[in-house]
Design brief:
single chain; 11 helices; alpha+beta; globular; 7-stranded mixed β-sheet; 336 residues
Length: 336
């Protein structure tokens, strides 16, 4: 389906579920962009979940979002259980505004929900020639190292910086071996997942997606990945006032209350210490690394975000392929 027509449908669905025009526009933009960068597990596959939570008033369709100024550089946002896309969008824009004024912007968000891909927010800062860190926590999926019970989310870590070119450097990675959204999609389609990425509820390795969702996901690099997940839980949960320590509710399965996810945005002027030479220095950094000798089968050493950027530009010219079950969801949700 044509991306513009699809966006109109998604926006219409959000409008019919009570979001105002601006919030529907923001949310539909992020969902379609997820499809365009090839992250379908964060796109249309989640639309029904958002709508279900809006209907059950677990996502506030008419939030009264409050922004507390702590200093010229620091702001604290209470999103009032707004849809995560809107809370995140307001948060990153405020962090960018603060950074432009003072050199650094620190914005914490509480009472939010799942906000999609962190790279969407990092990209906004990088386009303003700013450096950025984005943190957000998530429902329990990873067991802390030494435990057999899941507690930490897949808790992504995201960093972005301008490169002096049109392609931004954006590292956006979860601390789990595999994205939870991909496991959900595999479970829905009846597909297997790779081995050595998850354990079943009995602590045994499994490539069954449904059993993996019932069990635990494995972190990257063992105790190091567990430590990074804990770090993000502290930064985006403990520090912001959001839920933490396993209290973030699963958006698909737990309708007992709002998620109260926390986000943290740290935005800095890239020229704070080296002035106008930053772009020259980052170009030199990338050039040196790209010229390193390559292993067999590798044509080019890519920096984080480069592959996703190319995929996005390519997909802009194509129609978005929609699986049959997602198409049925769209029809049902739009007929409300």
């Amino acid at each position: 389906m044509n991306k513009n027509n699809l966006k109109k449908i998604v926006k219409s669905i959000f409008l019919k579920h009570g979001l105002n025009n601006n919030h529907s526009e923001i949310s539909s933009n992020y969902i379609i962009k997820a499809e365009l960068v090839g992250a379908s597990a964060h796109g249309l596959a989640r639309l029904r979940m958002y709508c279900d939570r809006i209907k059950k008033k677990l996502i506030n369709s008419k939030p009264k979002i409050k922004i507390k100024k702590i200093s010229q550089s620091i702001s604290h946002i209470d999103a009032n259980n707004a849809i995560g896309f809107v809370a995140g969008d307001i948060g990153i824009k405020k962090a960018i505004y603060n950074a432009k004024k003072t050199g650094i912007g620190l914005v914490a968000v509480k009472n939010s929900g799942h906000y999609g891909l962190s790279s969407f927010y990092a990209d906004q800062a990088v386009k303003k020639n700013l450096m950025v860190f984005c943190f957000t926590n998530a429902p329990p999926a990873i067991a802390p190292y030494g435990s057999k019970k899941k507690l930490f989310g897949t808790n992504p870590i995201c960093f972005g910086t301008p490169t002096g070119t049109k392609i931004p450097f954006i590292l956006d990675t979860s601390v789990s071996m595999i994205n939870r959204g991909k496991i959900r999609v595999a479970a829905r389609k009846g597909n297997k997942i790779p081995s050595a990425v998850a354990l079943d509820k009995f602590g045994k390795p499994t490539n069954d997606a449904k059993k993996a969702l019932e069990g635990v996901q494995l972190p990257i690099a063992g105790f190091r990945g567990s430590g990074l997940a804990w770090m993000v839980d502290i930064l985006s949960g403990v520090f912001t006032g959001g839920n933490h320590a396993g209290k973030v509710k699963d958006p698909f399965d737990d309708f007992s209350g709002p998620q109260n996810i926390g986000h943290l945005f740290i935005v800095m002027k890239s020229n704070l210490f080296v002035g106008s030479s930053y772009n020259k220095r980052i170009k030199e950094n990338i050039k040196i690394i790209k010229k390193l000798p390559k292993i067999k089968g590798v044509k080019e050493i890519l920096f984080p975000g480069q592959s996703k950027y190319k995929k996005y530009k390519s997909n802009l010219k194509k129609n978005i392929l929609i699986p049959k079950n997602i198409l049925e969801d769209l029809k049902k949700l739009n007929s409300r």
